[in-house]
């Protein structure tokens, strides 16, 4: 019991810290991609590439977007600092979004759930990595309707790598899952485009389902697609009912896939027996 309690406490602490880093990824990676695309376009047009200061996941240091106040170490403690500051910048008192501590808490809660489900093992650690990555992809897609290749493609390879030892599924099932995951949504995309004459989803969704297939195996794909549709319908109706979201405003599909993948990670084997005895 002592070892279990220590593992859970350690998972919570590490998860909170990783959640803080996930906030950085959510905020900075889309800006980094946009900056890279602009520089590439300028280069193709033969324009002089402007000399801009470094901007990545490490530099510059975190600062208040309103006043530029640099965030100190004491102001960057996950959840605790936000509560201590009353959810406001120490310098200018501009409100800090509650989403930052929520993402940090989710990082901790997901890590604890993974360790409880799979133990303080390689499988538990791998599950933490998958869940943290899905969390980052969910928030980025909600904000920008982008699922960056910088995250989805490494996630595919990571799934194949962990299943070299069959942590979640045999390697053959992981390979077939990656292929089938991509081709499933690729086929739906083109059928929808032929019938409706417009795009119904992005290529990032193909790669995310391929990654989930690589991690969890091909048998989980029908369950993930079904769950993502259910989650999307529920959340879509909730946003329309409570937030007044217009019916014709497109919604990203990636978050629903990510949530469905997390559900399949924990409950997939039991649920899949319902249709694959």
Helix/strand layout:
Layout: H1 2-44, H2 80-84, H3 99-118, H4 122-144, H5 149-162, H6 171-196, H7 203-216, H8 221-243, H9 254-272
Helix pairs in contact: 1-3, 1-4, 3-4, 4-5, 4-9, 5-7, 6-7, 7-9, 8-9
The percentage of residues in β strands lies in under 5%
So what's the oligomer here?
single chain
Q: Averaged pLDDT, please?
A: 90
How far apart the termini lie comes to 35 Å
Going by helix content, strand content and strand pairing, the class is mainly alpha
Radius of gyration: 20 Å
Task: Bin the helical content.
Answer: 55-70%
Helix-strand string: HHHHHHHHH
**Shape field:** globular
Uncertain stretches: none
Overall strand count: 0
Number of alpha- plus pi-helical segments: 9
Description:
The protein is mainly alpha-helical and 277 residues long. Helix content is 68%, strand content 0%. It has nine helices and no strands. It has helices spanning 2-44, 80-84, 99-118, 122-144, 149-162, 171-196, 203-216, 221-243, 254-272. The longest helix is centred in the N-terminal third of the chain and has 43 residues, at 2-44. The two termini are 35 Å apart.
């Amino acid at each position: 019991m002592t070892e279990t309690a220590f593992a859970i406490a350690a998972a919570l602490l590490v998860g909170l810290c990783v959640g803080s880093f996930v906030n950085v990824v959510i905020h900075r990676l889309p800006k980094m991609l946009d900056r890279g695309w602009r520089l590439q376009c300028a280069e193709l047009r033969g324009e002089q590439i402007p000399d801009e200061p470094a901007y990545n996941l490490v530099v510059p240091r975190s600062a208040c977007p309103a006043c530029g106040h640099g965030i100190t170490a004491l102001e960057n403690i996950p959840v605790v600092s936000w509560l201590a500051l009353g959810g406001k910048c120490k310098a200018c008192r501009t409100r800090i979004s509650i989403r930052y501590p929520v993402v940090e808490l989710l990082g901790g809660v997901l890590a604890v759930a993974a360790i409880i489900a799979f133990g303080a093992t390689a499988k538990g650690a791998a599950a933490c990595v998958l869940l943290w990555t899905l969390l980052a992809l969910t928030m980025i897609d909600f904000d920008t309707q982008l699922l960056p290749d910088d995250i989805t493609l490494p996630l595919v390879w990571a799934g194949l790598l962990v299943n070299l030892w069959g942590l979640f599924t045999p390697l053959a099932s992981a390979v077939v899952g990656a292929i089938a995951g991509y081709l499933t949504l690729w086929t739906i995309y083109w059928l929808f485009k032929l019938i409706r004459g417009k795009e119904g989803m992005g290529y990032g969704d193909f790669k995310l389902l391929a990654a989930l297939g690589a991690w969890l195996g091909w048998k989980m794909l029908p369950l993930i697609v079904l769950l993502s549709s259910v989650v999307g319908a529920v959340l879509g109706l909730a946003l329309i009912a409570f937030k007044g979201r217009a019916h014709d405003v497109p919604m990203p599909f990636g978050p629903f896939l990510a949530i469905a993948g997390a559900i399949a990670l924990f409950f997939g084997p039991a649920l899949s027996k319902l249709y694959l005895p």
